[in-house]
Structure formats: structure tokens, C-alpha cells
Write a structure and sequence with these properties.
It contains 11 helices and 12 strands. The chain has 2 domains: 227 residues, P-loop containing nucleotide triphosphate hydrolases (Rossmann fold), CATH 3.40.50.300; 99 residues, no CATH class. Helices cover 30% and strands 22% of the residues. The protein has an 8-stranded mixed sheet with strand order 6-7-8-3-9-10-12-11, sandwiched between helices. It is of the alpha/beta class. The radius of gyration is 21 Å and the shape is globular. The longest helix has 18 residues. Helix 4 packs across helix 5. Belongs to the ABC transporter superfamily. It comes from Krasilnikovia cinnamomea. GO terms for molecular function: ATP binding; ATP hydrolysis activity.
Length: 345
């Protein structure tokens, strides 16, 4: 898993804010504002962060559903940042997306067979045994009945619809799949089934995943590495076990402390260790200078307001564990802002 399949450098996506009759631009929402990432072939890279941090926008940039404002996207060594629609067609065969909402990502007027066969027809991929047979095999692969070929999306449950979305993404046998919160709209028991299905498919087809989620427990189960985003930036990235055992960025520490603990015997201790952040998330229209987390950080000092910390390995960490913080948290350090015993998480 040493070869990088996808690399992004300085990636940006700014959505313009216009005003008046002539749509004069008066500002921009900096959804993604300069991220550097590499996705290794065969791995699962988890991307986590609270709502509005830009992780879903980043996923749409990786798949080139959105045109980047700045930066560079490289896939298998080829720059795909600003390709035309026609030039993107071969890229679409190798990179697919599973969308968050299984209820809105499937066209209600089309049958399941039509939905899953659409990528094959658009890419003009020959199917020796016929398109219907190929679609039925895909349905069986994701745990659905081949007889569902002629049914419509409204006849399925949420979990079944998400399986249809997975089958559509697999139709072209891609190398990279970006899964944008694929289980967040599903019941907990169904979430486990879908996550296990993705795991099995990865082993069978040698897939590479970018798994976007806000559920840290799910990310821990499925990911090899984890990137943490805050307000359009990656603030920490590390191997899964290293990140969960020793988070370095104060924001990551706060996120980890918010993970619900199912064991009642450990719940009181978890509540005592809960880090409560003060203040609101700054606006992506006008983010703070320097470190973007400094307005909510208990370790912020003067340098945090003037210099943006680079995403680099900190003292004592391996090269794979990178943190964008001037004063990273060290193991055993006392953390301010912890809630008192019995406080609500």
C-alpha cells in the first residue's frame, strides 16, 4: 500500500457570494481552503470532522463532480484538476462515489436495472452475457435479489437503497470509491451490514476507499488511516491506531472525547474526560487568521493568531502522524475544559 493512487495539493473550493442585480461577488464561502492529502492504493482513508468542515465538498472534488477553485488533483500520476467533460470520461471509470442519502441519490422514475446499467451504457462497456445479466450479478453481489431488476426505488428500504447505490458504483469496476457518509442515514443494525459489505467488496475487488463520516466509531472500524478536518483544513492525519491512541491536535482530542461509550461501567469516567469546547464554529466566509481552531482552543497563544501551523510530524511522532498545531497535546497532559462528573455529553 505504498503507491499513492490519488494525491491532492493545495486543494481549494470557494463558493462565491453574489449581491445585487448584476450578481457582483462580495465574498466567498471557503468550504475547502488548501488541503494536502495522499490516498494509497488499496487502503481506506477515513475523513472525519463536524458538520460544515468541508469533508463532503472535498469528496466531490476528489471525484471531480465539483471544479476546484485552486490546487491540484493527481490520479495515478495524471493531473485531472481541470479536465474537460470528454477528457474526464476515462477518469469516471476509475473513480466512483457512494452518496449520503439513499432516498435522493436514486431516480424514482427509473427501475433498479436502469439505474445500475446507466454507467455501463454511458461508458459503452460491453457485457458478454447481456446488460440485464450483468446488473443481476451486481445485485446479487451486494446482497439483493436478482429479481429486483424491474422494481423502483420506492419499493426498497433505506439499507436496500444504499446497496443499490453501492452496486451502481461497482458497475464500472473502479479503482477508487469515495463514500460520502454512506451509513449516516441508516439504522445502527443496517449500518453494520453496509460497513461489512464494503469491507468484503474491498477484499474481493482490491478497492481503495475514501470514507467520509462523522461517526468516529465507524471510521475506526473501517479505516487504515484517518484525516481530521476543521473549517476547510486538515488539522491531523495519522494511522488509525496511532490517532485513536494518542491524538495530538486539541480539536481531535475534543472529537475523541465526544464518542459515546456503550459500556455503562465506563460511562461515568468518559463523562469526566469529556472536553467541552467554548464558542461557536467560525464562519467559513471569514475564517480566523493563523490557526482556525484558536478561537476555541484552550492552548492558543499569540503565535496561533499570526502564523498558520503547517501540517507536519511533531516531535516524537512518526512521519505518518502529521499535526497542524503549534502546541500539540502530549500524552498524559492535563486538558482544560473537561466537564465535571455526571455532565451531559
Amino acid at each position: 500500500m505504498s503507491e499513492n493512487l490519488l494525491e491532492v495539493t493545495g486543494l481549494q473550493k470557494h463558493f462565491p457570494i453574489t449581491k445585487g442585480l448584476f450578481k457582483r461577488q462580495v465574498g466567498a464561502v471557503r468550504a475547502v481552503d488548501g488541503i494536502d492529502l495522499a490516498v494509497r492504493a488499496g487502503e481506506t482513508l477515513g475523513v472525519v470532522g463536524e458538520s460544515g468542515c468541508g469533508k463532503s465538498t472535498a469528496g466531490r472534488l476528489f471525484t471531480r463532480i465539483l471544479e476546484p477553485t485552486g490546487g491540484r488533483i493527481t490520479f495515478e500520476g495524471r493531473d485531472v484538476s481541470h479536465l474537460s467533460t470528454a477528457a474526464l470520461r476515462p477518469f469516471r471509470r476509475d473513480v466512483q462515489m457512494i452518496f449520503q442519502d439513499p432516498y435522493s441519490s436514486l431516480n424514482p422514475r427509473h427501475t433498479v436495472g436502469s439505474i445500475i446499467s446507466a454507467p455501463l451504457q454511458i461508458q459503452k462497456i460491453p457485457t458478454p452475457q447481456g446488460t440485464k445479466k450483468a446488473v443481476q450479478e451486481l445485485l446479487e453481489l451486494v446482497g439483493l435479489n436478482p429479481e429486483h431488476y424491474n422494481r423502483y426505488p420506492h419499493e426498497f428500504s433505506g439499507g436496500q437503497r444504499q446497496r443499490i447505490g453501492i452496486a451502481r458504483a461497482l458497475a464500472l469496476r473502479p479503482k477508487l470509491i469515495v463514500a460520502d457518509e454512506p451509513v449516516s442515514a441508516l439504522d445502527v443494525s443496517i449500518q453494520a451490514q453496509v460497513v461489512n459489505l464494503l469491507d468484503d467488496l474491498q477484499s474481493e475487488f482490491d478497492l481503495t476507499y475514501v470514507f467520509i463520516a462523522h461517526d468516529l466509531s465507524v471510521v475506526r472500524h473501517i479505516s487504515d488511516r484517518v484525516a481530521v478536518m476543521y473549517l476547510g483544513k486538515v488539522v491531523e492525519i495519522a494511522e488509525r491506531d496511532a490517532l485513536y491512541a494518542s491524538p495530538r491536535h486539541p480539536y481531535t482530542v475534543a472529537l475523541m472525547s465526544a464518542v459515546p461509550v456503550p459500556d455503562p461501567s465506563r460511562r461515568d469516567r468518559a463523562q469526566r474526560n469529556r472536553v467541552l469546547l467554548t464558542g461557536d464554529v467560525p464562519s467559513p466566509i471569514n475564517p480566523p487568521s493563523g490557526c482556525r481552531f484558536r478561537t476555541r482552543c484552550w492552548k492558543a497563544q499569540e503565535i496561533c493568531a499570526t502564523e498558520e501551523p503547517p501540517l507536519v510530524p511533531r516531535a516524537g511522532d512518526p512521519a505518518s502522524h502529521q499535526t497542524a498545531c503549534h502546541f500539540p497535546v502530549v500524552e498524559g497532559e492535563a486538558v482544560q475544559g473537561r466537564s465535571p462528573a455526571g455532565a451531559s455529553a
